[in-house]
Specification:
Elements lengths: L17 E4 L15 H4 L6 H10 L4 E5 L2 H4 L9 H12 L3 E7 L14 H19 L6 E5 L2 H9 L12 H22 L4 E7 L2 E3 L6 H12 L3 H7 L15 E5 L5 E3 L20 H12 L3 E6 L6 H17 L4 E6 L20 E2 L9 E2 L1 H17 L6 H5 L6
Parallel strand pairs: 1-2, 1-10, 2-3, 3-4, 4-5, 5-7, 6-8, 7-9, 9-10
Antiparallel strand pairs: 11-12
Helix pairs in contact: 5-7, 6-7, 10-11, 11-12
Amino acid sequence: MLINDFSGTHQNPFKSFLMGGFECADHLNAFGNRVDLFHASGHDIYLEEDFDQLNGLGIQTVREGIRWSHVETQPYQYDWSVVEQIIHVSQLKNIQVIWDICHFGFPDDLTPLHPMFARRFSHLCRAFVTKYRSLVPNGPLIVTPINEVSFLSWLGGDVRGTSPYCVGQGWEVKYSLMKAYIEGIEMMKEVDPSMRILVTEPLISIVTSDPANILSLVEAEKKHIEQFQVHDILSGAMCPELRGKPEYLDIIGVNYYYNNQWINETHEFLPWGEEPAHPYYRTLHSLIESVFQRYRRPVIISETSHPKEDRAKWIESITKQCISIIKSKIPLFGCCIYPVVDRPDWDNLDEWHHSGLYDIFNTNSLERVPDIASIIAISKFKKHINAIQSITDNFYYRNSGLCVG
C-alpha cells in the first residue's frame, strides 16, 4: 500500500540523529525462565553514568523499555518507580527517551493468545502516558507500543522460543499482538493526541537461490513481503476490523543487523562484508528506499550493531549507507546503535554478545569498558552526519525540521 502524503508536516521529533538503545527484554526465554536484561546489564545501577557516556558521544536520544512484567505485577495495578527514575535522570541529563511499552515480555498471567491481552495492554498504555505527562507535561512523547511484532510472532508462535510456546501459530500471535497494538494507540491518543508512534520492525531481504525458477522466485518474494504485514495492519490496509489508520503508521523504525538477509531455500545468511558484494546482497540504502517508496513515511534505523571484532567495521558500513540515504533525499531521521552496552544472551546468560560500544567483562561489577575501535567509528559517524547539515538542496531536511546532533 502506498500512502503518498509525506510532506514537511512530518516534523522530526528526535533530539539527535545518532541514538543509543539499552536492552530491556523481560520475556520468558526458550527454557521458560524470566530474563531481565535491564538488570543483567547493570543499566539500573549505572543509569546516570550510561547517560553521561552517551552525552559525551553526542547521543541525546535513547531507546528504553518500561518492562511490562515489572510494572504490572497485578492486573491493572502499576508500579512506576523504575520508570519514574528513568524519566527523572533523563530529564536531568538532557536525554530524550523513546519508550517501548512491550519490548518482548508480558506479565506471568498473560500471553498474546489470552482473551484479555489487548484490554490489559491498552490500559497499560493509557496509564503510562498519563503517568508520563504528569511528570513531563510538555515536549514530544515518542512510543513504540510493541517492538518487533513480526519477530515476536515467529519466536513465540512458530518456534517455541518464548510465550506462548507454539508451533504453526505465528499468524494468530501476530493478529493478537496487532489488536493490542492498535487498541493501545487508541488509548494513548485519548490522553495525548500529540504523541508519536515509532514502529520498529525487522528489515530483511529474502531471496531465492534459483531466480530462473518462477515458483522459487514467487515463494521467496512472498516470504519477503510478509515483513510488511505489521505496517499494513497498522495503517488499516490489512485486517481493517482491527481499526488501523494511516496516521498510526507515523515513523517507521527498521531493525537491521548483519544477518537480516538470507536465501529462502537454505536459510543461509548472505555475507555483508565481501568485496565485491555477493550478487544477491542488497544495500541498506536499497532496502530503506523500498520501505519509503511503499509508505512515504520518515524512517529511522531503530536498531543496528554487530558482535565482537567486526562491530567497528559494521558502524563504518552503516555510516556510508546513512550518508547515501540522506543524499538521496529520503527522510532518514536517525540511527540507533543497539545495544549501547553489552548484554548477555537470552537463553544462555553466561554468554555475552559484545556488540555494544561498551563491553562488560566483569559480571560482578558490570563495569563498562569502551570498545575503542567502535567509539572512534561513532565519532567519525557523527562528524559525517554533521557535515550533511551543509547540504542545502535536500527538500525533506529543509522542510521537516531536522536537526542532527
